[in-house]
Design goal:
Keywords: Membrane, Transmembrane, Transmembrane helix. The chain is mainly α. The longest helix has about 35 residues. About 75% of the residues lie in helices and about 0% in strands.
């Protein structure tokens, strides 16, 4: 029996849907707004470009490692199922708890709010309307995900295609028409306010690369998950790396380094306006809003499926484990997470802060998963287990992921200790919930 049929899902999504979810979830607004901050933090254009490349290498190593973990743990539920299988139910539960209860509503509210802010600025609306525009966006994407899952997958393909257009334009314009060539600029010429920190620049890029692992949550809905899931991760991450590095190089070719830093969030807009005039900047703003909605859709696709898997295992309320009769989507889980995000949107301005803190614990679970590939190989060594994908350059590749993830964790502890501790407290708050469901089961 197909994995999707065992869990009640319709297994009819292909590679295009998986790729679109990976690319669409990761590429939001960061690629358009982070160029100046990464350059200034790195201290020089060469260091800035290398930060995006190193961040990409770490992300690719992580993707290749998780692709093998997914091949060795062929279950619905994604990251939750992986750590549950490797380390036991408590670790698996805390993985899902941290992402579904803490991270998911906060990050959905954060993305919706940011898209709403861009919309209000674009339409010259009163900023007091921002939170209500954010609510409309969340309701819109939630509604899409209550329909047949092919609708959400199609929306992912559409928004991903649209967001790749300005990326290609930025790369080509910088390569063929850029005259500034900021690559040779020294650190002193970039900024006199900071000496530069290559490590912190890498950290910023790793946050920009985050989100690709959520494709594992739709494994049960793929027609051929053993082939398409690892391909989606590897090809998707490679595409994202090319996009990020290509846009960075294009911007560095088009504008002087000091101009990029002084323009801040508007650096990419300046390049597009140089190529297409004022109308180009307006079109880019629309595309970024669409890009954010695509990212929002990716989160809304992935997190309810993790909640559904946990409810199926008896560790979340039973109603979250229901699939609709006709469309076979986790409607109850989708509505619960969507409404929680709306509550955060309307009641607090701290969604960004909550999601940033939660990323710290997400990376802890990433590192555990990277270590898990060694455990799984040893555990399955003599079992005659056939694996459809193995991490190339093993053990070097998972070690790169472990080192990169450890760097994120240590850097966060050094730079935001209170936020990291708060994040850990929110995760550990799930322990009594786990014990309750364990005793109940």
């Amino acid at each position: 029996m197909h994995e999707g049929q065992e869990s009640g899902y319709k297994p009819n999504l292909g590679l295009a849907s998986g790729l679109s979810l990976v690319i669409g979830t990761v590429i939001g607004s960061g690629i358009f707004f982070k160029q100046a901050s990464v350059l200034e933090t790195a201290g020089s254009p060469v260091a800035g470009l290398m930060a995006w490349i190193v961040g990409g290498i770490i992300t690719l190593a992580a993707g290749l490692t998780i692709a093998e973990v997914g091949a060795r743990v062929p279950k619905a539920g994604g990251f939750y199922s992986y750590l549950d299988d490797i380390y036991g139910h408590l670790t698996g539960f805390l993985t899902g708890w941290s992402q579904v209860v803490v991270y998911a509503p906060a990050v959905i509210a954060s993305i919706g709010g940011y898209a709403a802010h861009l919309t209000a600025n674009f339409l010259n609306l009163d900023l007091g309307l921002v939170r209500w525009i954010g609510v409309i966006y969340i309701l819109f994407v939630m509604g899409i995900n209550l329909l047949d899952h092919r609708v959400a997958a199609g929306f992912a393909v559409l928004t991903t295609t649209i967001k790749l257009v300005p990326i290609v334009i930025l790369v080509l314009y910088g390569l063929f028409f850029g005259q500034a060539d900021a690559i040779g600029t020294t650190a002193h010429q970039v900024t006199q306010t900071t000496s530069g920190s290559f490590g912190m620049a890498i950290l910023a890029t790793l946050f920009a690369y985050d989100g690709w692992v959520l494709v594992a949550n739709i494994r049960a809905e793929m027609k051929n998950p053993r082939r398409d899931l690892p391909l989606s991760i590897v090809l998707g991450v490679l595409t994202i790396i090319l996009a990020y590095v290509g846009v960075t190089y294009g911007v560095y070719r088009a504008l002087p380094a000091h101009t990029i830093v002084s323009l801040g969030d508007n650096a990419v807009f300046a390049v597009i306006q140089a190529a297409f005039g004022a109308i180009g900047g307006r079109l880019l703003a629309i595309i970024i809003i669409i890009s954010m909605l695509g990212t929002l859709n990716g989160k809304m696709v992935a997190f309810p499926r993790m909640a559904h898997a946990m409810a199926d295992d008896g560790y979340f309320p039973k109603y979250l484990g229901h699939l609709t009769t006709r469309t076979h989507v986790p409607a109850a889980a989708t509505m619960t997470i969507g409404l929680a995000a709306i509550f955060i949107t309307t009641c607090t301005n701290s969604a960004d802060r909550l999601s940033d803190m939660a990323i710290f614990t997400v990376w802890i679970f990433y590192v555990l998963a990277f270590i898990g590939v060694f455990i799984l190989r040893r555990r399955q060594k003599n079992g005659g287990y056939v694996v459809d994908f193995k991490t190339p350059l093993y053990p070097l590749t998972p070690l790169v992921g472990i080192v990169g993830g450890s760097f994120v964790i240590i850097s966060t502890l050094q730079n935001d200790f209170s936020g990291a501790v708060t994040s850990l407290i929110m995760v550990l708050a799930g322990v009594p919930v786990y014990l309750y469901y364990k005793n109940k089961n």
